[in-house]
Specification:
By secondary structure, the protein is an alpha/beta fold. It contains ten helices and five strands. The chain is globular and about 50 Å long.
């Protein structure tokens, strides 16, 4: 059973998400938080697997709450999905850098939300080739973009791992990476996992950030 925590300052939205999630046989809501501080506390005491985190809340917002969860060793297994009203929300990129595993627009279809929870719970990142890549690319093109990290950060990777990492940044799944490189999905997953371990990346979302900030993938570059 996947244990889900809801963090949103609007009780009506939480009630809707609870009804939807509890309707699934493999998911259960273990708590509700109305601000980021409560979300961090409940994530710890309720042993949540996934937090559906609204990005805008009073007091401690979703961005800071995500940062606190990612920085807490006791919460290493907790995955965060950022909920936002606008797919172009700049704070989403910051949240992914802070440790979120992905994001959803609040008007997503119910089935999409349930699948998102399952995907993130099993350790994958919620990174679609469309919305997420467009968001990161748009932000990477801005004048205030952080300077590229020294290329040496990628020195630990093999050529194949760099190739796989670039395809992860393009939003490809393990199956799609395998098909592109003539590998089995399991082999593709192994390369992704090794890259994550070597770069100390929390998940695939973090790999995307490193791929852009290291210069491995350049804004607007197609896969």
């Amino acid at each position: 059973m996947i244990r889900v925590l809801l963090a949103d300052d609007q009780s009506l939205i939480r009630a809707g998400f609870r009804l939807l999630i509890d309707s699934a046989d493999d998911l259960e809501v273990v708590g509700e938080a109305c601000d980021g501080a409560e979300a961090v506390r409940l994530a710890r005491c309720q042993r949540a697997d996934v937090v559906l985190m609204d990005i805008r809340m009073p007091g401690v917002d979703g961005l800071e709450a995500t940062r606190r969860i990612a920085a807490d060793d006791d919460l290493a297994g907790v995955k965060v999905i950022i909920l936002t009203t606008f797919e172009s929300d700049e704070n989403v990129y910051q949240a992914i850098r802070a440790g979120a595993s992905g994001f959803l627009v609040k008007d997503s279809e119910p089935a999409e939300l349930l699948q998102a929870v399952r995907v993130v719970a099993r350790g994958d990142a919620l990174l679609s080739p469309g919305v997420t890549r467009r968001l990161i690319t748009d932000l990477a093109c801005r004048p205030d973009r952080p300077p590229p990290v020294a290329g040496r950060i990628l020195d630990a990777l093999t050529a194949r791992e760099r190739e796989v990492m670039a395809l992860v940044a393009a939003g490809l799944s393990n199956d799609e990476i395998g098909a592109r490189l003539y590998l089995s999905p399991l082999t593709a997953k192994t390369h992704v996992s090794r890259a994550m371990t070597k770069l100390n990346a929390r998940d695939r979302a973090q790999l995307v950030v490193i791929a852009y900030e290291s210069g491995l993938v350049t804004p607007g570059h197609g896969a």
